[in-house]
Amino acid sequence: MLDDMGLSIGQVAERTGLSVHALRFYEKEGILARQVQRGPGGRRVYTQQDIDWLRMCIMLRMSGMPVPEIRRYTELVRQGDGNELQRLDILKEHQERVQQQMVQLQECMDLITYKVGKYEDYVNSIAAKAVGQ
Amino acid sequence: MLDDMGLSIGQVAERTGLSVHALRFYEKEGILARQVQRGPGGRRVYTQQDIDWLRMCIMLRMSGMPVPEIRRYTELVRQGDGNELQRLDILKEHQERVQQQMVQLQECMDLITYKVGKYEDYVNSIAAKAVGQ
DNA sequence: CTACGAAGTAGAGCCGACTCCAGGTCAAGC
DNA sequence: GCTTGACCTGGAGTCGGCTCTACTTCGTAG
For the segment B2-44, what is each residue's pLDDT rounded down to a tens digit? Predict the structure, then answer.
């Protein structure tokens, strides 16, 4: 184990649910807010902050934000103060998309639930007939 | 225009929002409940039923059901009566997944909304300072 | 009779997001 | 000193879901 706050890539993979492959991939794609530190032998050493950032990125990905847009956001954060409006824009736009996604998903859910109901009724009616015989 | 109930692939594309490419692809993948009829010159002729079925498939796709699973479901429907329990299983399983997806999406939404709120506060406080000067 | 547009087929290509591979370093344990 | 296991790099491969290409065939309009 690395000293105190430092985590290896394997440990981060465990804690975030990402694969080590994905972690290296994300780094190469520039979606880590701070340059990942390196320990002896060139090994990556992650801090808790890195994990927190990754967890947010995971949320963004899960909700469908494409990697390039996460990179744009990350770059703004890396640049530091002064571009908060731009960051806000990205987030709001994404929020909008997620909202739409949820509405769509709800529509799908309604249809599926309707169909499940119909099939359940049907299956039950068949079962009832079988008992009645 | 084809007679009465028959629609060309182009018309179906318009009405469903799928591309003609996608329509042919779906057919090749076996996710049309009934064999699409052919008109003169071997052209596809869709009925309202085909469109209704397609609309359901679109819902299933939108909610993340993979094409092979839609095919399985379609095959059951094509086989006709007697396999309703299997159809129900597929639908219920998918319903479960959609439910989880919605929960996840809501979690993402909460985080994003939280961040948007924080950035809005910050941006407003900066604006207020500027006015105050 | 020529051109156009919409259709047909088979099969190649593309994109995003990983995932895997080959080949190498290094530290620890036997 | 040899194996093992976790890590490193660059680059190739995969997978799903279309999308596009190339070329052909129709039917109608000019």
Answer: 345 789 999 999 999 999 999 999 999 999 999 999 988 889 9
Cβ of A15 less than 7 A from strand D = no
Contacts of B60 in chain A (CB under 8 A): 108, 112
A39, A33 Cβ separation under 8 angstroms: no
The residue among A116, A94, A105 whose CA lies nearest residue B61 is: A105
pLDDT band at A2; cut points 50, 70, 90 = very low
**Choosing among B90, B91, B98, B126, which should be mutated to test the A contact, i.e. which has the most A CBs within 10 A?**
B91
pLDDT score for A67: 96
Looking across all nucleic acid strands, the nucleotide with the smallest C1' to CA distance from residue A39 is D7
* Distance from C-alpha of A119 to C-alpha of A125, rounded to nearest angstrom: 10
Q: What per-residue confidence (pLDDT) applies to A127?
A: 87
Say what the pLDDT of residue B4 is: 56
- pLDDT digit string, tens, across residues A51-90: 999 999 999 999 999 999 999 999 999 999 999 999 999 9
Residue lying closest to nucleotide C17, CA to C1': A67
Residue of chain A minimizing CA distance to B85: A123
Q: Do B9 and B50 meet the contact criterion of CB atoms below 8 Å apart?
A: no
Q: CA nearest B115 in A: which residue?
A: A91
Q: Quick one: chain B helix, strand, coil %, rounded to 5?
A: 75, 5, 25
Beta carbons of B94 and B63 less than 8 angstroms apart: yes
Q: How many residues does chain B have?
A: 133
Closest CA to A30 of A65, A67, A84: A67
| Distance from C-alpha of A80 to C-alpha of A83, rounded to nearest angstrom | 7
